[in-house]
Amino acid sequence: MNVSFEEIGHISATFATDSARVGVLCKMTANGKVAPCEDGNAFCGKVESVRKGFAGVQLHGFVEVSYSGTAPGVGYQILVADANGGVKTHTSGKSYLVVSVNQSAKTAIIEL
Question: Are 112 and 92 in contact (CB under 8 A)?
């Protein structure tokens, strides 16, 4: 039996953007505006769609993200954005619940 976390607690919002890309983590840059994260940034969500200067961003719920470096463990882990639109573990910052890690695909499912 497979376990699925898809769509649990999913909350999205629309923000203005000049540079957001679908599938990458983003950060707030101004009132109501997001941009892709840079390496080491705190992130607010994952971009789901971009159209005509606006981005749909998932802000809450479970989401699959890529990771770089050491695989995060399951449970609460401190994560920041990496340079590729995903996450990496860190020694300080916000803790996220990691419920699944796929080391061969270098992905994790986290709760935003």
Answer: no
- Asked whether the beta carbons of 67 and 82 are under 8 A apart, the reply is yes
b/e code 30-58 from CB counts within 10 Å (16+ = b): eeebbbbbeeebebbbbbeebeeebbbbb
Tokens at 22, concatenated: 């679908």
For 108, residues 6+ apart whose C-beta sits below 8 A from its C-beta are: 64, 65, 67, 71, 72, 87, 98, 100, 101, 102
Residue 100 CA, chain-centre distance (Å), reads 14
pLDDT, tens digit only, all 112 positions of the chain:
478 888 889 999 999 999 999 999 999 999 999 999 999 999 999 999 999 999 999 999 999 999 999 999 999 999 999 999 999 999 999 999 999 999 999 999 999 9
